[in-house]
Specification:
eight-stranded parallel β-barrel; 28 strands; twelve-stranded mixed beta sheet; alpha/beta
Amino acid sequence: MAAAGLRLLGAVWLLAALLLLRPGAAASAAVAAVDGRRAIAATGEDFVCATLDWWPPDKCDYGTCAWGRAGLLNLDLSNKVLLNAVRAFSPLKLRLGGSLQDKVLYGTADLRQPCTPFVKNESEMFGFTQGCLPLRRWDELNAFFQKSGAKIVFGLNAMKGRVPLPDGSMGGPWDYTNAASLIQYTAYKGYHIHGWELGNELSGKGVGARIGADQYAADVIALKTIVDDIHRSTPSKPLVLAPGGFFDPDWFTELIVKTKPNLLNVMTHHIYNLGPGRDTNLIEKILNPSVLDGMVSIFSNLQGILKSTGTSTVAWVGEAGGAYNSGHHLVTDAFVFSFWFLDQLGMSAKYDTKSYCRQSLIGGNYGLLNTTTFQPNPDYYSALLWHRLMGTKVLATTFNGTNKIRAYAHCAKDSPGITLLLINLSGNTKTEVTVTAHAAAAGGAHKHGERTSYTTAQVSVTNQAATAGEHKHGARRHARKFGHAHAHAPGFAAAADGATRDEYHLTPKGGDLRSQVMLLNGKALATGADGSIPRLEAVKVDAAQPIAVAPYSIVFARISDFHAPACS
């Protein structure tokens, strides 16, 4: 038998095994209709981003100290897995910041006081004194960033110079002297910084402290002036980002209006929609479609504000850990969290989010890497697969079937066709998904969660936009079974019998949602003895067959013969 035939046979056995993971699982059929005529949104090139935080080893939540030596001041930058994990993205965007960033001084010449680390003090905001970033450590970090190819966004201390106001907020202009010295030193050393972000969680009601939008706008403009002045002779200047806080429509609108059209490059907001890490119902929330859909309004509202105000500012999620206070061990660092994480990536992309920064790359109970061993947690592999398979153009996708399946489609990355992401939140139903081309209703994108009914005649590979006659020759078996494909219309391109697609099935080891071992097509993912990141290899599946989505599993399907005009 030819090698290709053996691989296909292997894939059939593998998928059969995946579907037997949960004996007695019910089976259902469904349709994912992808409108390939035009993109409904676009992400940035390097959409997936992760954070590094400042927390010292004695940062504890609910009696557990989950940060270890993962903070920016003491992370082991010589660890091979850490280097390879960042390098695998080529590039990975890293946002440096967090709660303590507004208490960080920089050890530049202007400081005129000792550059000392954070010290635990429960009477202080966030439980620590001010800390300091020595230039020696900044040099070490930048050497690592250069070696790993990371793109860096650095969160600046926005609290310098503030005074308390009668309404309880902090006021007075930002004292940018120390920050400007760091930016100047960084440029002098030739370190490439992708962006400088002002402040952490000081917007709206604030966390720990708050600053009014009017004052914040003036401070953003001051930062923009500093960055432009220091980089006046360089063609590509670092971005200016703000406010790195929780979405507040009025506050965000005022900041946008007072910095438009181009004084603020990126508006960043944070997401911890699952509540505190100690919540014992986190898994139930993650598996609940209506909880996941609760974020739609924030993404949609922010998109609306940016569109209606006539600004060039774009939206990023600047920090998202799902459950605050360092997450929850064996939930936010286990397989089950990939349901939340990948759904967030898919949903935010539909609303023109350009980058999504996951809290954290390492540290806490929500790291992509294990805090002590540096071994990748399941979400690391989910992030890497997204980065490698999902292109920047987002396609409207409508799912007919159970609301326990989440479906997102993008143009494929560096490849013809599309990539479809399917997330099965059901533990007892396997779903066979037929992919069709579908012309979306007038008015653009379908709202998330809209379920479309199909008659048998509509479950087809169709070209509702075409005016040309049917392309009669060479249509593949899938098209013969469900209708006819058209050569240049949205839908499946004419292909010979035997066409295949690439599938990546993600499941937890032993079927345990709390497992920290992810299986890709039935095989456990683990780093090599040399700290290398494993190859992420697809199975080839007969393109005429529906996509078999096992209970509690995630599937990326790269469908190269799906012709989407939006992708060409």
